[in-house]
Amino acid sequence: MEPWESTVSLVHAVPRKLRAAVVGTGSRGAGLAKAFQASPDWELVAVCDADPLRAARLSRKLDDVPSFAAIDELLDCVELDAVAIATSHRALYGTVMTALRAGKHVLVEELLADSLERGREMAAEAESEGVVLLAKSAASFDPAVQRMQKVVDSEALGEILFIEARRTETGLAQADRDVFWDLSPDSLAVLDHVLPDGLNPRGVSAFGGDPLGTGRDCVGHVYFRLPNDAPVHLHINRLSHVKSHRLVIAGTRLTLAWDALVVQERLRLLNPGLLGGQPRTAPYWAEPILLQQQDDEVPVSVLDAENRARLATELAHCIRGQRKAGSPNAPALRVLSVLEAATRSRALDGQASAAVAPPPDGQEPAGTGHKSTLWST
Question: Which domains can be identified in the chain, with CATH numbers?
Answer without folding.
Answer: 3-135 (3.40.50.720), 139-299+326-347 (3.30.360.10)
